[in-house]
Amino acid sequence: HSVSFSPSGNKLVWVGHDSSISVANAGNDQVVATIKQTNLPMLTCIFITENSIIAAGHDCSPYLFGHDDSDRLTALQKLDVVKAKSSGTSSAMDKFRNLDKKATTDSDAGRQASTHQNSIIDARMIGAKGAGKGISTAGVDGLVVNWNFKSLETAIAGLKIA
Question: Which helix (H) or strand (E) element contains residue 33?
Answer without folding.
Answer: strand 31-36
